[in-house]
Specification:
homotrimer; about 325 residues; alpha/beta; Udp-n-acetylmuramoylalanyl-d-glutamate--2,6- Diaminopimelate Ligase, Chain: A, domain 1; UDP N-Acetylglucosamine Acyltransferase, domain 1; 4 helices; flat
Chain lengths: ~325, ~325, ~325
């Protein structure tokens, strides 16, 4: 049964303007919306896009004047959030039901403890002594190794590996000897882990990802890393052993955090940055160089190799000029 | 039955010189060839390598004078292409038959539609409503999530994930709320996807990879990315959400393309570059710094932190010197 | 039966000081140790941490004076190595038994040859003609494609792919034609490969990883790469086609090695470096720029785009000043 504007407004606890009985049958972007679709508008600059859209209703920021908008509207202080909530109400069938129930092809060890409503996807492997909290969903093809503990309402996407051995090696006479990795991995509640991401077990103590952390695809979390609550990490990031990342941090895609260092709470690291030292103050941090035409890049790179020498020359010249001024 | 030089030439539509009845029993690199083997030679600079090789025949560029070559030859305007075609004729048994038919261990939802001659490898998971076109091959351990559409003659290598949720989050009171990802993924025809690569489903609209795109291993394609036809992407690349990449582009290994930007057709981005802005003109683009001995690198990096200050000093000195010249 | 200090010392061939009958019941880091636990101490600077620890015994470097330490001690020239060996003796139950025996859910082709004591994890796929040497362990969800050869005592973690097709393409009229990949992959003895790492088969010849190499998670090894014995590679590294890496090298996390180049033995490449040319001498190499506050980074990056011009200005000024000095 399609939802009316009034019912949606009630469930989202938003005020609305327009025909209370309007039926909402779908959600879409402004560009692709059809009649019956709900969209959202966060920024005033997109107001002009409404004219070209066939959408029937909009979730609108309460900072935007709605007077000239000829659609039904719902008014929200956080339109993106309200829209996220609306999707589950307007078109529950379109949500990716990654997994439902325990798939019979999953290989689950006898000693595993699954909380209420846990789903385990096709062809998962879950090792001895694993504990998974209520409502968590484990995607197809995941491997959860022995003694890993996963909190409530966690969401692991396909082919994730949790609890693989950390990269612990000792050199002995020019060869590598493996250090047995006897720690485990602990995921808090409401943690989301993207496809093909790997989280290694700790060497002695545990690797820990606290409540509400969100990790994208193809991320490496090494042994004994600790990630503070509500930190979000974009795809392709690598976090080396024993790094400690604070709460509410945002780590951009393909950034690398070296081992045995600390990042305080509320730090943002932009994409592809390399963190080589502790970050002691909240703020935004970056490294890398800008994209250039290849020919320019070659020229500038050639100079980078002697940047120190260049700086010394400038210092010398500066001194010479200052002296000649003083004469 | 081994192939003769004459038969191979006929099938590849190439002219040949030498014994038409010569049996070709294998293919190899010049260095490792044995009697009976076919090799290829693209560049004149490798001509001298023929002497040390035991190969019996060569596919030779039509730009190279064959007069002094004492082997059977096939003459091609694109020797590497002819050689690629020859492999399937000379030694079909050595081609990696990744998958053949539908492996009984694959977990395929009831509503899946498979075209003629589709192969699905061992231990794949294919979700509800997935459509896979004729002749496509899905490698072992792949996870294809609900409603993904894959064109004809596509080749997905092992452990690929297509249709995992995009990394869609809204901040609410210092916590993250998941935005349901209700778009899907559409792969065109003749798309190849490397092992352990991930392609996320779109948030509202679809993620699209057009005809003839070739993606290597361990690549991340985020939600709502659009990759134009015949673009090739090397391993370990990350493409952030809603990036649009043109046709016939080449993205080097471990490059990163940020979200919500556009790259026109015929752009080449070299390895490990970071694309932070639109690329509006065809050409070759790069970022990053050259490899140095670690001690030099430390010195130059220290200077990079004050490059802006250095540049200001140079500007000031330049002005001072110009003024003193004018006096 | 718990181990006594005397027995442990005998088995590790170390001298000890303290109560020979002391029972050792666990291993731990100094910070988390409880009574009965064994720890290790490599560097003098951690000596003061002993006071706050409840550990009962320590493996101590023979370079540290033990006179003031009030715990049982074992004296070693390589405490970390001795500790790694001790773990298996003190708490064998806590070692991650990744796989034991051949899991019935593994899909193993008929022609596979498994050496004595090989373990194959749940839901692995092993293709035709694969040979795996004695004592090797293949983690859950791995895909080992046709004709791959794996030596003795190798350890492959979960979801590893060995023998996927290399990224071999020829351009033909603005489209890509696949080059069949008919080489294979050869892993030596005692090779360890981390979770979700991919190793592609060679185009014509084999991809080779020699004895004792250790690869971390999410690494890409392209076709025809050759990695010398006892080289260690950290997570997220990409190695492009036909690169040759020497023996006893150390490649830092997320570094990239371009194709068709050579690195000699005993080279260390630091994290996130880009190797674009041969490395002909042992040593430590790096590239990249330091992490900065985002506002500083923007300023310095703007200057980097005209670094060559800046250097030319400095050269000109230097010349001018030298000339005016000579007048």
């Amino acid at each position: 049964m399609p939802l009316t504007l009034r019912h949606l407004a009630e469930q989202l606890k938003l005020e609305f303007e327009g025909d209370a009985d309007l039926c909402l049958t779908g959600v879409a972007s402004l560009a692709n919306a059809r009649s019956g679709d709900l969209c959202f508008l966060q920024h005033e600059k997109y107001l002009r896009d409404i004219d070209g859209s066939d959408c029937s209703a909009l979730i609108l920021s309460d900072k935007i004047d709605s007077i000239e908008i000829d659609r039904a509207i719902l008014i929200s202080s956080n339109p993106q959030l309200s829209f996220a909530q609306a999707i589950a109400l307007v078109c529950p069938d379109r949500i990716n039901r990654m997994v439902m129930g325990i798939h019979p092809s999953a290989q689950i060890a006898e000693s595993v403890i699954l909380g209420e409503g846990v789903s385990v996807g096709a062809l998962c492997t879950i090792g001895e002594g694993v504990v998974i909290g209520a409502g968590s969903q484990i995607g197809a093809g995941c491997v959860i190794e022995d003694r890993v503990r996963i909190g409530d309402r966690c969401l692991l996407h396909a082919n994730v590996v949790i609890g693989s051995d950390g990269f612990g090696l000792v050199e002995d006479n020019q060869q590598w000897v493996k250090v047995p990795q006897i720690g485990s991995v602990v995921l808090g509640n409401d943690v989301e882990i993207g496809a093909n991401t790997t989280v290694d077990r700790g060497a002695l103590d545990d690797t820990v990802i606290e409540d509400g952390c969100k990790l994208d695809n193809l991320i490496q979390v090494a042994h004994n890393v600790r990630i503070g609550a509500h930190t979000a990490i974009a795809a392709c990031v690598g976090i080396a052993g024993s790094a400690i990342i604070g709460r509410n941090c945002k780590i951009g895609g393909a950034a690398v955090v070296l081992g045995h260092l600390s990042i305080v709470d509320n730090v943002m690291v932009t994409a592809m940055s390399l963190v080589t030292k502790d970050i002691k103050n909240p703020g935004v941090y970056s490294s890398g160089t800008p994209l250039m035409e290849n020919s320019e890049w070659h020229k500038n790179n050639a100079r980078y190799k002697s940047l120190d020498k260049l700086a010394r020359t400038v210092t010398r010249l500066d001194k010479l000029v200052a002296e000649s001024d003083n004469q």
